[in-house]
Amino acid sequence: MRARRAASSRTRTLAPFRTRNRYDPVRTGRGNCAQAALSCGAAMGDFGFLQGHSLVVYSSSGCPDCARLEHWMRHSGVQAQTVLIDEEPDAADKLERETGMQAVPFILVDGKSWVRGYHREQRSGLDEATLLAELRAAISS
């Protein structure tokens, strides 16, 4: 009896540990705004400055940063066209040629200015205030 208990307690301590990152709604692009580290557009304020401007998101399937940006845009009510670079090879060439980067997501504003859709310096990977400031700057230039 005693050997059985020791074996079962050892099994419990050696059981695989599930990390939070695998099920993190921000990292996986799943979940709702309450679960995500990003705030919804209603919490941040007005997105009216984006009206009348063309936003094209260059993205890739299976990209966690792209899913995070898509989640933010959907819940903020920001309208944008999406171009998947893994489905349109010319889009990947255009992105690299014009930005000098091989990274996604990027947002093309009014067909002339590029804004990054990720912020590696931020723990969450996307900072709403930084993104909005960069979009404002792209629109005013």
Task: Characterize the structure shown.
This protein has seven helices and four strands; from the N terminus they run ααααβαβαββα. It is an alpha+beta fold and 141 residues long. The chain has a single domain, classed as Glutaredoxin. It has a four-stranded mixed beta sheet with strand order 2-1-3-4, sandwiched between helices. A hairpin with a 3-residue loop joins β3 (106-109) and β4 (113-116). The termini are far apart.
Secondary-structure element pattern, one letter each:
HHHHEHEHEEH
Q: Please state the structural category.
A: alpha+beta
Uncertain stretches: 6-44
Overall average pLDDT: 77
Distance between the termini: 77 Å
Can you tell me the CATH topology? Answer: Glutaredoxin
What number of domains?
1
How is the largest sheet built, in terms of strand order? 2-1-3-4
Number of helices: 7
- CATH class value: Alpha Beta
CATH architecture: 3-Layer(aba) Sandwich
- Report the CATH superfamily: Glutaredoxin
Share in β-strands:
5-15%
Number of strands: 4
Please state the CA-atom Rg, rounded to the nearest Å: 20 Å
Helix content: 40-55%
Largest sheet descriptor: 4 strands, mixed
Shape: globular
